[in-house]
Amino acid sequence: MLTLRSELSKCLQTRLCRRIPTKGISASSEKRQFISDDAGKGERVYDVIIAGGGMIGGAMACALGKSSYMQGKRILLLEGGQRKSTDILFSPPNFYSNRVCAISPGNMKFLKNLTAWEKIPRFGTVRKMQVWDACSDGMIMFNEPNMSEDLCAIVENDMIIASLTDVLNTQLQGQVEVMYESKISGCITPRNYALDDTTTAIPPVTINLKDGPELKTRLLVAADGVNSFIAQKALLSKMKWDYNQSAVVATLELHEEIENHVAWQRFLPTGPIALLPLTSQRSSLVWSTTHEHAMELLSMSDEEFVSAINNAFWQEHHSSAIVKYVQDYATRLFSSNVYNAKQYPPCISSVSGKRASFPLGFSHAIKYVKPRLAVIGDAIHRVHPLAGQGANLGFRDVECLLRVIEKAVYGGEDIGSLNHLLEYESERQLGNFPMSVSIDLLKRLYSTDFSPIVALRCLGLMACNSIPSVKEQFMAQAMK
Ligand SMILES: Cc1cc2nc3c(=O)[nH]c(=O)nc-3n(C[C@H](O)[C@H](O)[C@H](O)COP(=O)(O)OP(=O)(O)OC[C@H]3O[C@@H](n4cnc5c(N)ncnc54)[C@H](O)[C@@H]3O)c2cc1C
User: Fold this and answer.
1) Letter string b/e over residues 346-372, b meaning 16 or more CB atoms within 10 A of that residue's CB
2) Which CATH architecture has domain 2-478?
3) Ligand 1 atom at minimum distance from 182 CA
4) Ligand 1 pocket residue status of 72, Cβ below 6 Å
5) E strand or H helix that includes residue 459
6) For labelling alongside 323, which of 49, 192, 379, 436 has CA 20 to 30 A away?
7) Which of 49, 50, 56, 291 to probe ligand 1 with, by most ligand atoms within 8 A of CB?
8) Which of 83, 184, 224 best tests ligand 1's pocket when mutated (most atoms within 8 Å of CB)?
9) pLDDT above 80 for 14
10) pLDDT of residue 138
11) Backbone angles phi, psi at 75, to 5 degrees
């Protein structure tokens, strides 16, 4: 990201020959009329307010706070929940949280640039990934040659939030204000303006807190999660549907110590079950299944739960004649190209800590921005966890929005003007929408045991597994 920023800076300096605004100068004078300067009325007008201090809002606050373009700007992070202790970074608990995320190499780099990554004391590394179908022999294996590079890291969500909080506490105290237990209960965003309207002073966004003062901002960045209050108030319509599934999560102990660097995912007709490596003897479970089965899994004894997991990974399913015919044909067709034989995941011996379940659904907003409003993370897109992409897409939103804001500040533009916020919207829609739709299609494709579909997906999976360039394309997208 730093390279990108310096490239952008070089490009702007050489081509446009404009002056970089220095500390305290918010905009060039000829553009100042676009900014409603309510500060004169004694109100608190922030340059940017970020709503929601989850992983994505926290990263946005750090990214803005660290940006040299934002020096002297008033930045506020509002989080509805309580301040979380950062002690887990310095003395990690013996147990692992059941909420983890697979973080792509591109986003590890992004978090490194925020100096947040090096604060995370522990994470698992994935060097190989096996995805296979319970209803056929179809499988695909992803790995870098010789398993030398990490495909992703498995990190506890709490660790990511704590590391971002620590950056805010220790490095950005004078730069980013943070208010905890500050739930936004009201928000008025300006109406839409014509893009070429250069005369109207666009009023700031007004924010009301459940308990607290009224706040105003030139740009509101909404990172308030999947049920975003702000996206609703701003009438940003979304395509959305429920998957009628819940994901059961837990931390599992392996039967024996192994070199644990493989992520396993098996598609069962009820939904995918995934085992993600944490340590040599621990993995994290994400089991997406029907709500009823999820409830059953939560209420089982530890022994029953462990045995259900082992069965889900190991039990053979009956294949119909047509599926057998197609898979024999595919095996003959692709066997010369296939270098990876199917393997089986490690045996689970016990479960440690609590289990939990989360309802799953899809949503994608048609628009990401309005005048003085940009929405990021789950507040704008929600995907099925089967590809481990939700937070990864959110971090890419942050990177893109930061670039767009920096460019506006550098050019002396109004930080909340639609003209540049639309750049963020177009770029991220191109990244988020195809990925979200692909994940949705994958989920649908694997939600059936109807033989002709099983036969087709078996053929598809075996074909993809045998063509390195196809696999490289998949990996390149997921590892961004
Ligand atoms: C089972 C499961 C597994 C997953 N696995 C992966 C994975 O492997 N890889 C991956 O990339 N993603 C994964 N995801 C997705 C990932 O967890 C989410 O994309 C990510 O947590 C979204 O972060 P966020 O900050 O946008 O939203 P949230 O985490 O929901 O944070 C929103 C924040 O806003 C605050 N807030 C809400 N309303 C208000 C308000 N009115 N005022 C003030 N504050 C407010 C909340 O308190 C919260 O702190 C998974 C999801 C699930 C359910």
Assistant:
1) bebeebeeebebbebebbbbebbbbbb
2) 3-Layer(bba) Sandwich (3.50)
3) 43
4) no
5) helix 451-466
6) 436
7) 56
8) 224
9) no
10) 80
11) -120, 135
